[in-house]
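Researcher: Please translate sequence to structure tokens.
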Amino acid sequence: MGAGPAGIYAADLLDKSDTDVHIDLFERMPAPFGLIRYGVAPDHPRIKGIVQALHKVLDRPNIRLLGNVDYGTDIKLDDLREFYDAVIFSTGASADRALDLPGIELPGSHGAADFVSWYDGHPDVPREWPLDATSVAVLGVGNVALDVARILAKTADELLSTEIPPNVYQGLKTSPVTDVHVFGRRGPAQAKFTPMELRELDHSPNVEVLVDPADIEFDQGSMAAIRGSKQVDMVVKTLQEWAIREPGGRPRRLHLHFFHSPAEVLGEGRVAGLRTERTELTGDGNVRGTGEFHDWDVQAVYRAVGYLSSHLPEIPFDHFAGTVPNQAGRVLDLDEHQLAGVYVTGWIKRGPVGLIGHTKGDAAETVASLLADAGTLRAPVHNDRDAILGFLEDRHVPFTTWAGWGLLDEHERSLGAPEGRERVKVVERAEMVRVSRGPRD
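Model: Translation complete:
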């Protein structure tokens, strides 16, 4: 269940095993690729290049895509067990992790995941986004925080060459933003973004990246982190260079702040500011509060403090960790017994950490567990591979297929061609399904 990178990697490994296997990839969206389509910023085409490798997997005859099928609504676990020996859940993480902060629920305070879904044209979110702030705060120093900050800071015309839908372009076009502030609780050596993501901030001709020299501080723990990681070293060097350079004259500014712990979102009725507490290093790379507070004049706050998976019906769930309890991918019930024939991989298995490529290791472990259990799995009731198609049709589920993705892909590319763009993404679910299902509808 789930045709994003995690699910496709698992299908790839199963198909390459010595076991005679047929694999159906169920996907809630009408289109495949999950996080790559709906979680990667539109100005990151090289990351989207991973699609080419995933495309080759989905082209194989033993792997079939069944899109626009919602687990828990269109099909349940008992239904799946009638048609399959085993089920792997790879549903990812698409919700925002909560942040316990006074004022965080004020209008004008947003989750990063919701904003990412909007600018990536997710069909299940509103078509409009409130972009009325001149100064914005982004809480967090991971890659998602940088994506959010970069999209907020860039002009709409800079993004027009990408696949952003018309409603996203029009929304960004009206944004009055002049300043975007990114806040990290700890120091430069503890930032979680990658060097490439960081350097990309400085590529826009319209966005000046600013770092306060006072935020460039290190302790013994920080120096150990720098010496122990080439990536950390590259991030720190880039931030140091930006801190000492003379500011330019670009019309928009993106400020990177370190040693500022969010304390309160200010405002009555809507966001009117952010209060942070200055922190200091404790010697081991951690920080403590100093009791010194600063109020920032911002009119919107975006929290980018992590994604969270959603609870799946009939599947055990650890609500604190946001994962399904498992042992090497085998799902465990409340008594820590294996749930026969049910497995997990990807972010729903280990949490939303690491890059897309890290899901390969997850998939390898889960598939190894499944193959080791193969002799004990209960055989499905229906042996006919196409029986599931009849089941979905009887339920009046307008499912989409891999061939249907080809139709949608071609249609989106045709929308982009007149403007010299690779594609223009279709947003409406009904339209995605109509195009994907072709003349039969």
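Researcher: Any highlights?
Model: The two ends are 25 Å apart (CA to CA).
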